[in-house]
Amino acid sequence: MGAVRLHRVEEGPEDGPVVVFGGSLGSDLRMWEPQVAPLVEHGFRVVRYDARGHGGSPVPPGPYELDDLGGDVLALLDDLGVDRVHFAGLSLGGMTGMWLGVHAPDRIASLVLCCTSAKLGPPSMWADRARTVRAEGTAAIAEAGVSRWLTPGYLERHPDRAEFLRAMIAAVPAEGYAACCGVIERMDLLDVLPKISAPTLVIAGAEDPATPPAGHSDLIAEGIPGARLEVVADAAHLGNYEQPEEFTRLILDHLERA
């Protein structure tokens, strides 16, 4: 399967260092809204995209592989006319970032890997979820998705934001979501992590039920030479949205070091 032309939004100075943001399974580029203004204010050119099968991007028939998602981003960089970028990804976006770090090291100036995993089993869970979504649509799993994305306390304090995110998941095309479940089902990056040479920051949510720090973020940080791990309190899986100030601070600090 060839690359698809990803839907993207660009903000910030045209001559600024480029930061590309890749999102979670079930999200669209609006999930990164809290990070945009602070990075633009620091002179970065911010590019957010919808993964294939999500948001405004094309929905080719599955199966998809991680090679496809990574190839889409490389095509995006070519389309933008940029040689090297900083890449920040959360969950599925972080998996794409690791693929880029392994397969296109000359294009990646630095990596920020948020609330993600290099191997996220069991495979049967992803196959079951894909079957559910193909049969019943993404609305059927939206409530469970939000309960992984946000801590119970945040859900209680911000029902409007929870509803915004619930609707975001429910709007994802069933085939796109299910085919990306297949990507995660078959993904295993643990053995290739040492090939990543880009300066890497790994950020975890202390209360993330989907990719908890122990067994996921710690393995990534241990596997990538020189990587640094930061665990953010009171954050579940969509940590950048729930704890935007701390995630943005960590991202900016890493970008400025890199």
Overall radius of gyration? 17 Å
This entry's quaternary arrangement is single chain
Gap from first CA to last CA? 34 Å
CATH superfamily of the domain at 8-118 and 189-257: Alpha/Beta hydrolase fold, catalytic domain
Going across the major beta sheet, what is the strand order?
1-3-2-4-5-6-7
- Order of secondary-structure elements: EEHEHEHEHHHHHEHEHH
Identify the CATH class of the domain at 8-118 and 189-257: Alpha Beta
What's the count of strands?
7
- Helix vs. strand class: alpha/beta
Do you know the CATH topology of the domain at 8-118 and 189-257?
Rossmann fold
> Helical proportion?
40-55%
Number of helices: 11
Shape: globular
| Weakly predicted, low-confidence segments | none
Pfam family, one: Abhydrolase_1
EC number: 3.1.1.24
Protein name: 3-oxoadipate enol-lactonase
Domain AB hydrolase-1: 17-133, 184-243
Name the descriptors:
globular; 7-stranded mixed β-sheet; 47% helix; 258 residues; 7 strands; 11 helices; Rossmann fold; alpha/beta
Write structural notes for this entry:
The chain has 258 residues and is an alpha/beta fold. The protein has a domain at 8-118 and 189-257: Alpha/Beta hydrolase fold, catalytic domain (Rossmann fold, 3-Layer(aba) Sandwich). 47% of the residues lie in helices and 15% in strands. The chain is built from 11 helices and 7 strands. It has a 7-stranded mixed β-sheet with strand order 1-3-2-4-5-6-7, with helices on both faces. Strand 6 (200-205), helix 9 and strand 7 form a beta-alpha-beta unit. Helix 2 crosses helix 3 (92-103), helix 4 (123-136) runs antiparallel to helix 8 and helix 5 (139-149) packs across helix 7 (159-170). It is globular, with a radius of gyration of 17 Å. The chain starts with 7 loop residues before the first strand and ends with a helix. 53% of the residues are buried. The model has no long low-confidence stretch (mean pLDDT 98). This is 3-oxoadipate enol-lactonase. Residues 17-133, 184-243 form the AB hydrolase-1 domain. It comes from Amycolatopsis nalaikhensis. GO terms for molecular function: 3-oxoadipate enol-lactonase activity. Pfam families: Abhydrolase_1.
